Amino acid sequence: xxxxxxxxxxxxxxxxxxxxxxxxxxxxxxxxxxxxxxxxxxxxxxxxxxxxxxxxxxxxxxxxxxxxxxxxxxxxxxxxxxxxxxxxxxxxxxxxxxxxxxxxxxxxxxxxxxxxxxxxxxxxxxxxxxxxxxxxxxxxxxxxxxxxxxxxxxxxxxxxxxxxxxxxxxxxxxxxxxxxxxxxxxxxxxxxxxxx
Length: 196
Prior knowledge:
Shape: elongated
Order of helices and strands: HHHHHHHHHH
CATH class of the largest domain: Mainly Alpha
Structural class: mainly alpha
CATH architecture of the largest domain: Orthogonal Bundle
Radius of gyration: 20 Å
Helix content: over 70%
Distance between the termini: 49 Å
CATH topology of the largest domain: Arc Repressor Mutant, subunit A
CATH superfamily of the largest domain: Winged helix-like DNA-binding domain superfamily/Winged helix DNA-binding domain
């Protein structure tokens, strides 16, 4: 980015063409590692550049731009995977969760025994969470209550429910990472599949 800020002041279009030519293909490849679909990966990379253009006034172009771009790719890829998973869980009955688990396992070449081991580890770890956090998490994942229903049941705000669920998921992921038990795709998808 050394001289890019000067170029940016002189010619925004030239700057973004330089950035596009330099990083676009590698960004597509990076996104593909997560979404496993070239068209989706390309769309994500294009969306990142579009967002970069929209927010160009607030970006410090004196700093290296590559970390910013790759972090944006990562975030949009994760958001895409979460959206797909939520849609799938909305479109199919709960009784088909075991089929979704099988699909995930096939994709990652993990067998049923490993999934049971991971689930057992998660169950044990959930027991160590703070009481309210554990209660919210179990109501969400075991009883399938919506955030609003949990909030009403426990007499807390929906924001608090979201915070507890986010805390639980983050701590579970970090725990599994430390144990080196789980590859990235299962790491992303497993929390919504644990109750099958």
